[in-house]
Amino acid sequence: MDYLDVFREKRKELGLRQCDISAALGFKKSTYSMYETRKNKMDVETFAEICRLLGITPNEALGFEEEP
Hints:
By secondary structure, this protein is an all-alpha fold. It contains five helices and no strands. The longest helix has 11 residues, at about 5-15.
């Protein structure tokens, strides 16, 4: 599982649609969809903003354990 799978699962867990994330980021729905389907790569700032919107840390998205 990579960070895009984590994003997709968390988005669904929160009851959000791709268009909800897109709107919050100021993107077209197709732009976010292309990230999730691996047709386009996102920059670091977008990655961090999506983490913030989904309420997860970048480390959680990348599958790293948080230190106590």
